[in-house]
Design brief:
Two copies of one chain form a homodimer.
Chain A lengths: L1 H15 L6 H8 L3 H8 L2 H18 L8 H17 L5 H16 L4 H23 L7 H18 L8 H10 L16
Helix pairs in contact in A: 1-2, 2-3, 4-6, 4-7, 5-8, 5-9, 8-9
């Protein structure tokens, strides 16, 4: 059942975007009872988050950019995220996170699906950061990447101020500058790809 | 009518938080027909945004922090935002922005209410930045403040990674470091990039 429902969500997302369908339509396409979906996931938003976690995990297999430098990888990745969020419904995942967050806040418990998404994303970015470390670069930690690269890309799209803000490579430079390690070798700035 | 509806929303927000009431309840409290609300605002989210713009504009009168330094002002402000978004429904405004954005995307037109909110917020921050400039500091532009201070505060709360990330004063330092290095006073035609 889980597999069929996930596949139904994925095909509906491709056709209509993540905000373009109801729980009933998912149920119909998956050939399951609508009540089954709500019993298992609680809400369509929770189901969307679970699917997003799986998509993110699959990205491990279809790997992140590997350009030979941290700057090159983050630039390529930032561009693909900027394109992704600019699509219709591109911020639907953030919306689902907020909805799941509000629902768990109201119940006073944790938000395991949001944590799972964060972990899946950490795994994706982890490859880029690990390769940078192996090359002798000192990459920022995951949370710096979230703070300095992902967060502004999301907010730019939400508020629509991206065109007035600094170009993507400034975000990337600032992300790289956020490395928690102390640079002992300052002329290592020539790492460009 | 507009005034009565705004007041109804504000009192309901205080009692239940921004996500805790329906359009019908707003109409009842304001003593207007529910259809009037949807005819005028289109959706409860749009109404919430309009109220948020007004609240933001009022913040001009009850001023932003004025501690005598840009760092002090931004630190105080970052702390108050972090507290604000950590409340139940603290991310409701972001959710309303996303909903309004999705609605305007679907219609293919602009998002005037989101722009109005951005402008009202620009006015609020503007005072802090103008005072810094008058003291001879070189403050960052609005979009740097959004990218480096507001965006991570929102994303930390949405994904719940705030405790694992760097302390607020690191965000503030990074925001200040985003200053365009223009120390000339008059022909400082600030340009991004």
């Amino acid at each position: 059942v889980g597999q069929a429902v996930h596949e139904a969500v994925r095909s509906l997302m491709e056709e209509r975007g993540p905000g373009g369908f109801t729980g009933r339509e998912v149920a119909e396409r998956a050939g399951v009872n609508e009540a089954t979906i709500y019993r298992r996931w609680g809400s369509l938003d929770n189901l969307l988050l679970d699917v997003a976690v799986n998509v993110e995990r699959l990205n491990e297999n279809s790997p992140m950019p590997d350009t030979g430098s941290l700057r090159g990888d983050l630039n390529a990745w930032a561009m693909s995220i900027a394109e992704e969020v600019a699509r219709p419904d591109g911020l639907e995942l953030l919306r689902a996170v907020l909805a799941a967050r509000a629902a768990t806040d109201a119940r006073g418990d944790r938000a395991p699906r949001i944590l799972a998404l964060l972990e899946a994303r950490a795994d994706s970015i982890g490859g880029v950061l690990a390769r940078a470390e192996a090359r002798g670069e000192s990459p920022p930690d995951l949370f710096t990447v979230l703070d300095r690269l992902i967060a502004p890309l999301y907010l730019r799209e939400a508020f629509g101020y991206g065109e007035m803000a600094q170009p993507l490579d400034v975000l990337v430079d600032n992300t790289i500058a956020g490395t928690p390690r102390i640079h002992t070798d300052t002329d290592a700035d020539t790492e460009n790809g």
